[in-house]
Amino acid sequence: MYDARRRRASVGTSQLLDNIVSASNFDRDEVDRLRKRFMKLDKDSSGTIDRDEFLSLPQVSSNPLATRMIAIFDEDGGGDVDFQEFVSGLSAFSSKGNKEEKLRFAFKVYDIDRDGYISNGELFIVLKMMVGNNLKDVQLQQIVDKTIMEADKDRDGKISF
Q1: pLDDT tens digit string along 62-87?
Q2: Which CATH architecture has domain 1-101?
Q3: Alpha-helical regions (H) of 23-98
Q4: In angstroms, rounded to a whole number, what is the distance separating the alpha carbons of residues 121 and 110?
Q5: Which residue, of 13, 50, 67, 118, is most buried by count of CB atoms within 10 Å of its CB?
Q6: Domain coordinates of the chain in residue numbers?
Q7: Nearest to residue 131, comparing CAs of 97, 9, 145, 139?
């Protein structure tokens, strides 16, 4: 009985991994390696990576956009990242990821409310994360206004993908 349950669980896991592979730019070996990396990051073995676990990575914690990256990976807005979300978030950065996927990820960094547009306020917030106090807010707002003017092709006051 126990062995049968274990086989079903491994088949379910295998099917889940196959689904993840088909929905990503990674092959099965790459997904297996990502799963091992995910399990190391999941310090409390909850099956998800929370903000603190993400920030335990030096290359993430030192990035001024770390909180935005975590929010993008957290597709369902649940506050943590499961394995499918983890692979999906990394998929654009695979060597097989195309230019549009990479651009879409970059767009999502700025689209804080996930409405498909980058507003003046969103652009200001994200740029402020990057420049900190190196620019006065007035200077930063001028850059934001100029950027919106140049990138707003349909003149609706915001940037579309």
Answers
A1: 899 999 999 999 999 999 999 999 99
A2: Orthogonal Bundle (1.10)
A3: 28-41, 51-55, 58-61, 66-73, 83-91
A4: 10
A5: 118
A6: 1-101, 111-161
A7: 139
